[in-house]
C-alpha cells in the first residue's frame, strides 16, 4: 500500500473528500516526525511507539577496497510495535472450509 491508497482508504472509511483525508494524514505524519525529531517518544496504545535511537560511531570496511573507514554517530527513527499490533499480525488465518484433502473424500 502506498500513501495515495492509504488516503483513499481513510476517505472511504470516514466518508471524507480525498483532499481532506490527505491533509489529515499529512498532519498526523508531520506530528510523528516532529515529535521524534525533538527526541520525544510518541506512543499510540495498541499500535506502537515511535522514538529516536542513537547509533554510536563505529569503524567498518569499505566493501570494494577493504580499507577501514570511520562511520560517524547518527540518530535514526525507530518503531516498536505494541502487543495488540503484534497479535493482530500474528493471528492465525481463519479457514472457511475443511482442508482440500478432506474435501476430496
Question: Taking strands numbered 1, 2, ... along the chain, how are they ordered across the largest sheet?
Answer: 1-2-5
Please compute the radius of gyration using only Cα atoms: 22 Å
CATH homologous superfamily grouping of the largest domain = IHF-like DNA-binding proteins
Largest sheet: 3 strands, antiparallel
Cα-to-Cα separation, first versus last residue: 40 Å
Q: So, CATH architecture of the largest domain?
A: Irregular
Number of domains: 2
Shape: extended
The total of helices stands at: 4
Average of per-residue pLDDT values: 90
CATH topology assignment of the largest domain:
HU Protein, Chain A
The level-1 CATH class of the largest domain: Few Secondary Structures
Total beta strand runs = 5
**Share of helix among residues?**
40-55%
Approximately how much beta-strand content do the residues carry? 25-35%
Run of helices and strands: HHEEEEEHH
Structural class: alpha+beta
Family: Belongs to the bacterial histone-like protein family.
InterPro entries: Hist_DNA-bd, Histone-like_DNA-bd_CS, IHF-like_DNA-bd_dom_sf
Protein name: HU family DNA-binding protein
GO molecular function: DNA binding
Amino acid at each position: 500500500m502506498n500513501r495515495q491508497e492509504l488516503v483513499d482508504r481513510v476517505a472511504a472509511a470516514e466518508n471524507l473528500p480525498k483532499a481532506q483525508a490527505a491533509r489529515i494524514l499529512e498532519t498526523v505524519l508531520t506530528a510523528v516526525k516532529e515529535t521524534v525529531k525533538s527526541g520525544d517518544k510518541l506512543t499510540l496504545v495498541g499500535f506502537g511507539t515511535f522514538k529516536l535511537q542513537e547509533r554510536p560511531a563505529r569503524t567498518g570496511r569499505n566493501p570494494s577496497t577493504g580499507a577501514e573507514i570511520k562511520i560517524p554517530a547518527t540518530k535514526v527513527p525507530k518503531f516498536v510495535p505494541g502487543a495488540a499490533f503484534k497479535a493482530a499480525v500474528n493471528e492465525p488465518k481463519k479457514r472457511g472450509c475443511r482442508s482440500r484433502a478432506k474435501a476430496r473424500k
